[in-house]
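Example: Isocitrate dehydrogenase (NAD(+)).
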Amino acid sequence: MHKITLIPGDGIGPEVSNAMKMVLEASGVEIEWEEVQAGEAQIEKYGTPLPDHVIEAIKRNKIAIKGPITTPVGKGFKSVNVTLRQNLDLYVNLRPVKSFKGIESRYSDIDLVIVRENTEDLYAGIEHKIGNYGAESIKLITKPASQRIVEFAFKYAKNNKRSTVTAVHKANIMKLSDGLFLNTAREVAEHNTEINFNDLIVDAAAMNLVINPQKYDVMVMPNLYGDILSDLCAGLVGGLGIIPGANIGKDYAVFEAVHGSAPDIAGQNKANPTALIQSAIMMLRHIGEYEHADKIEAALSKVFLEGKVLTGDLGGSATTTEFAEAICKKL
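Written out as structure tokens, the predicted fold is:
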């Protein structure tokens, strides 16, 4: 029995979370959920969208999965996602991007992985005003953070029988910060010669991912580039409603749907729960439940391939519940 923290989130979060739980239960995996709430609704009660007891629950159980959470705009609250990553030192953001037969897309046979550094770069939030004239953000890149994210990428490549790691950067312009990241990646590559290594300037990476995404395998990069390119890659295979995500550190791991909370369709049973279900598949593999993970992935693939029960964003008319039930039937 695994005890796992569940943060349903807000907007469509509770709906996709319920669908995910339904599918995991049908797979037969034994999980005890500790459900805690975070998001906009908690601000009035606790003065923050991320109460302390939520972080305590994650620390207690080590593993968590969360639905989408709204970050209030213009109200002075830090992103819940960024706060979790920094407080728990979840230095890896992992997003596998894979094509499914049956989902309409301009591309097929895509199977790449974005490994994004999660704790520094411009997302460290080091900013200040320059009078009334402007504002300045500091891009923080350190050797220890660069080293551990690239080492994770190589380890992931080895453990998942991948052949190539590509470091993405802008060292031709930011010679000190991105130069440090690139040089560190090259040093790590010298100790992992069984995996091919190359590097790519970020703007060229964006173009090449659109022209020929099939040629990429594991791509590792600083925080900002990872945020942008992972969303670009999601668009290649059907959108953010499909792609899973994981935030992984030395002691804790938080798995998440990377799409937004979509308040315009919240409570209507319309949302596509695939991203959170795929995140749960990643979570099961992380805790060693490979057989259950493989069963769910195979069932999901069959539902897509048949194309009879799809949510509206995928061209169908099924509800969130109907889609989850279709997967359960395959299980």
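The chain has two domains: 1-94+240-331, 106-236.
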